[in-house]
Amino acid sequence: MSARHDILIRGGLLFDGTGAAGKPGDIAIRDGRIAAVGARIDDTTAKVIDANGLTVAPGFIDIKTHSDFTLPINPRAESKVRQGVTTEIVGHCGFSVAPALPGKVELLRGYLSASAPWLPFKATTFSDYLASFPATAVNAGMLVGHNTLRLMVMGMESRAPTSAELKAMIALLEEALDAGALGLSSGLFTAPGSYAQADEMIALCRVVKRYNAGYFTHIRDESNKVLEAVDEAIAIASACDVHVEIVHLKCSGLDNWGKAARVLDMIAAAKRRGLDVDCDAYPYAAGRSVSRIRIRAHAFARTSPAMGSIIGAAFHRGIACGFRSRPTCRSMPGARSARSRPSALRTRSTPSPTISLRTKARRGCSSPRSPKTISAISYARRLRSWVQTAIALRPTAP
C-alpha cells in the first residue's frame, strides 16, 4: 500500500473496538480521518508517530459525566481528550440545563447554582438548547433530567404530581426525546427527584420506551438501602421493558462493605430473566456530592431559598461542598485502605449525613452523630459553619 497521508501511526497494537484481540499494524490518517489500516503501510512522506510498544484504540466513551456544565466554557475538553475520551454522555443524575420554562429560569438557576453558577440560564426548549450548544472537541450525548422536569412543573413540592402535572412532565420529556435526547436521567437521591414514587417513574419510562431511549438512574439510596434501591431500578426495567443503566453504582458506608457482590448478583439475575439492566462505576476510590443531598429532605423543602443562598455563596467562593477521602483517615486506628475493603466496587465509605466537617477534620474518620431531630433553621446555620470550615481546609493546588 502506498499513498499520500498526513499522519502515519506505525507499529502499534491495534484494537478495533469490536472486542477482538489486538494485532500489530499501522494506521494512516488523511484530512482528519482514518484512511487506511494495515499490517504495513508504506508512506515515507507522512508524519510518522512511532507506536511500537503502545496500544492504539478507538476513542473512549465516558458514559457518565456532568460536562454539560463545563463544555460551554471549555469546549476543548483537554482533560478528557488527553485521556483518550472522545464521547461523553451528559445530563445525568436528574440534572439538565434544559428545558427551562418562562418564569422558571431563576428557579433552575438557583437549583443548579452549586454545580454550574457560571452558565447563562435562559428560557429554552430542549430542542433550542441542543441547537445552541457549542461545538466541542468531544461528542456529547444529551440526557434530559427528571429533577429538571419536576422542578419546571412542580417546583420543590414534596408530593405526588396531579394528573395534569404528570401530563406536563410527559410533554416536556417528549419534546426532549423528539429533539434528540438519548434518554431520561433521574436523581432519586436528591430533592425534588426523591419525592417521586415508583408510579411516576414508570409513567415517564413508558414514554422513554416509546422512543427506544434509555433510563439512567442515580438510584434512591447508595448506602444502607442500596439493595432496595437496586430492586426499584430493576422493577422499572421489568414494568416498562426499557433499558436501565444504574450509574456510578456503589455501596457506601462501613455497614455496606461487602454488599457489592449481592448487588451484582441481583443485576445478573435480572439479565437472565431478559431484562435490559446494566451498571457502571467510576474507577477511583473517592467521591463527592453537593450539600443538598446531605440535608434531610423536609429541611431542604422548607428552607430552599435561604439554603440555596448559603450553598450558592459557598460555591461562588470556589468550594464544592462535598466530602473527600483524606490521607489522615487512613492513619486512624481501625481504618482500612481501599485495597482491603471487601466491596468489589472498591468504593469509599460515605460519611453520615449529619457528620460535621469541623469534627471530621479534628478527629479524622470518626465523629459523634448529631441529634436525630433538628430544625430546618438549625440545619441552615450548621451548613454555613460546615462551609466556612471546608473553605478554610480545602487543599491548595500542588
Question: What would you note in describing this structure?
Answer:
The chain is α/β, with parallel strands linked by helices and 398 residues long. The protein folds into three domains: 7-56, Roll (Urease, subunit C, domain 1), CATH 2.30.40.10; 60-218, TIM Barrel (Alpha-Beta Barrel); 291-393, no CATH class. It contains 13 helices and twelve strands. It has a seven-stranded parallel beta sheet. α1 links the parallel β6 and β7. The chain is globular and about 70 Å long. The N and C termini lie far apart (49 Å). Mean pLDDT is 80; it is low at 300-306 and 308-374.
Key traits:
single chain; 398 residues; alpha/beta; Urease, subunit C, domain 1; TIM Barrel; 3 domains; seven-stranded parallel β-sheet; five-stranded mixed β-sheet; 13 helices
